[in-house]
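Deviations from the work plan: none for this task. Representative record:
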Amino acid sequence: MKEYLFVFGRDPELSFLELRQFLDGRKIHYIVKEVKDEIAVVALENLEGDLANTLGGTVRIGEIIGRDKEALRNFPFILSDKMRLSICVYKNSSLYLDVKTFFKTQFKKERLRYLFSKNTAPSKLKKDYLEILLFKDYIAKTTSLFNPSLYKERDKRRFQVFQVPIANYGFFWGNKEYRLDPTRVGSWEKAVAISDLHFRFEDKVALGATLGFIEEYQPDVIFVNGDVPDFPDISRFSNSPLDLLTDEDVADLSSLVLESKQQGKIKKYLKPRLQRDFERIYEFFKELRRICPKARIVWIFGNHDHRMQGYVDEDAKQLAGVRRPGDKDEVLALAELTKVREFGVEIVYSGKNESSTTYGDLLVGHFYKVSAKSSFTAAGLVRQKHSSLVQPHVHRMGAYYKTLLDGTVLVGVEMGCLCRLDPEYMQYPNWQHGFVVIHKKKNSGRFYLQPIHIVDGAFLFAGKRYGRPSNHKDETDTKT
Ligand SMILES: [Fe+2]
């Protein structure tokens, strides 16, 4: 086996993985001796061909001569007249002066002229060169150097060589990133996406477990990905009674009363259900802001969030779009009526159309497509939008993956829901509770998704249990 020094260019961590993939794929036996930033020292057999121009991310490959200046004397250098000699020094190798003096003496001895330079770009070394690479106490002679004019070709080939970049890059377990090379963990932003609460039909246990997790996890971004209220009273599908009091309502009758001052007289009304929905939404975002004071909170509207605007546009056209004089925001807009901007909530709303936003290379939106089976909706959407995405709306968990010809992996995740699983209008719905944890690399589009399935009000994240405790009374009670 011989030892080689690999010098990587752009994105060294990816280039290192590319090299391993290349060697693994060709069943070349190798041992990684050392990896530090853009340098890898690898012992291997059968290194043939112009590898620096085959591997997309490798700039130089050098055969290691030895680990002290004595090794230079035993190496059969072939020197010629007017040769270019360059010494590249990595990580402050202390051998620089010794090596320089050695070659000066050698050229002098053989009466040859030479051009000397330090840390020279490959483009300047193209013809008749001798390049020595120094890294710590390693001394290497360059055997393969990339040709900068081929960089486009190299990039194309890079994906052919490195066929599964995301899968091989590493993975997350909970909040911990695992890499082939553990010294190269990235810097990531963390986000949580929740959806489909459908107030007043939320599942208090699933929602409580999720909020408890969010408070502990302190994500940088919280995506509330649509359908916060249900708004059955203004549904095209609904024939629900206009006002049905729940036990909760009756327990606090004063909260049901709305006072209005008209013509100098106080008039009392039973609060319309919509009003109570607005207040519930306000309380929810207030709570979210309280538990995560620093997070970006992004509310992406779903079809149910749109219902109110849709109702105004269809049934109260004359009031559509009205603003208080001088104001920017419409009065009869959901964000306005629920006052959520008080808590710094960012709104993503495209009217009748599906609303979505991007988070790195991931599309976060509330899409209206529905297929009956788990992951089928995500598959259809990934194919339709040619993008990775998370999809709420179907109230189901599911994941779909597709590797494209260039090696890019697209993923679509159906993210479950946080509403009750026993709707009045459907028997045995194929629904599951869940949400998604997203890691997004800083200053990059790269992301990693961890769908979390909530089972009986509890779930595991990196092996830790959240939500309903395992010895919960209800569970044991039902068994006895
Ligand atoms: Fe929806």
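The first helix runs from residue 12 to 25.
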